[in-house]
User: Fold these one by one.
Assistant:
Number 1:
Amino acid sequence: MFVIVDGMVNITFVDNEDTIIGYGPRSEAIEKGLAHRIARVFVFNSSGELLIQKRSSNVKLAGKWDQSAAGHVDEGEEYATAAAREAYEEIGLKDLNLTEIGKFYTEEVDENILKKRFNMLYVAKYDGHLIHDNDEVSEIKWIGLNELKDWMDKNPYSGRPILYNITSILRALLQDWLVMFVGC
């Protein structure tokens, strides 16, 4: 059951062990410095390129490049459910075969706000047609991980901090998966 406050679904608050301690609006997590859960989806094609999206002018961090899809884990959801929901909402991909590759904790300054998050990473392979949600995403493109790192080094403010930071650890986390599922 989802509880909606001010038009928004409550998100999941957790302690420093990622144990659920409650639910509430995103604003409460920020105001009180509460850790919360995020599901992050990285979609690769058969060439090993990562799908990235540019955030639309209708969402926070407008105009910034970001991972394939991501979002808060809502009240009553598990990480995997949130990952599948976000992939469908943002980039139109339904029934992806998502593979969980790891979880890590971040304290990220974004929009001059400290955000404490447990991030669960998922990967998927997809080579079909893409239709993204124009309300959330203004543009999508495929890019190699090395090319992405070089591009972000040259243009550090063009992407969200998490996209810049994660490129340095993403290849190591994904190496086995890329070889097995994508052939890179």
Number 2:
Amino acid sequence: MRKGCLPTHRRMLGCILCFAIHLGLYGQDVFVCGWDEVQAVRIEGTNLWVMWRWRASESDLPEWTWQSFATTDECKPYSDGRLIITSSGGESLNGGVAVVQIPTGKTVFYARAPNAHSADLLPGDRVAVALSYQSNGNRLVIFDLSKPDAEIFSTELQGGHGVVWDEQRRLLWALADYEIRAYVLGDWETVNPRLRVVYRQRLPGEGGHDLYPVPDSSELLVTTVLNCWLFDRDGRTFRKHPLLGDVRNVKSVSVHPATGQIVYVRGEVQWWSERLYFLNPEKLIFVPGQRFYKARWIPPPKLKIEYRTNAVILRWSLLSLGFELQEAKQLEDGLWEVVAGPYDSSFGDWCKCYLICDEKRFFRLQPVLR
């Protein structure tokens, strides 16, 4: 796309050009991790189609880091196309953390992180990493994305397994073996940031494992060895999950932000499983030989429209793997055609530019099926 298609002056186009956006269909797309790679998969019935994969030994990470990603135990996506990957390091427990860009797989950041189990992006291009049991673990560590492999702050977190940045409340929630904590950011605009505990509560069960937000809710999903819980960040109360409350050894839970469907993984073969479980509606997917540890829904793409002086810009997330941009001149005949690229990604989204014309057009993002 020509950068001349992005003028800064804006005005309404009125009837000169009329665009409409059709939502199309939601793709059932999930990031899964566990063994030495992360995959983005599309669910078709009880089958999985691998749309994208990442493996340290096939990435642009320095070769000396590859052994730190012998297993993968977090695959957390962000709307700007970034993906956080953490690793316990396999049997060595000399794990790591990486931030990569979708769909290129280009490394944005990496660091050694002993027995890392989860991470989350923070304001100011920083990242928090929860480290579990290891000689240099049991900590909550802060890194700056501009400084690979260099800790800038750490604090004790026994058996650290989960971490979630809460933008609305400006709190960092962390899950330890026996408690949940909330931290505020301190001295964040300096080179010596810190975290300060402002809340802590003992878990209703032992062995805190997964910590993940419920979309458009004040609740966090919390799993322990014997149960699954919902923790209300406003009321500061725990209640058993209505569907998963007494399910044991749940390694991860994720709620689809549009449909509400739940995907979860149970530790059935040591720490991993060959199965993905679904609720609302219920389904089971069995993949012999897989080692699933965590599964995170990929948010469905939203097609956005921006009006400029002499152009219309269509934008959609870089996470939109396995989708086609399609257009039609009228909806009645159902004739949709694929919009040819190239698309521009230099503005943090996929973009397609159209100069002003007198035609009415309709657009949608459509999932591609095998």
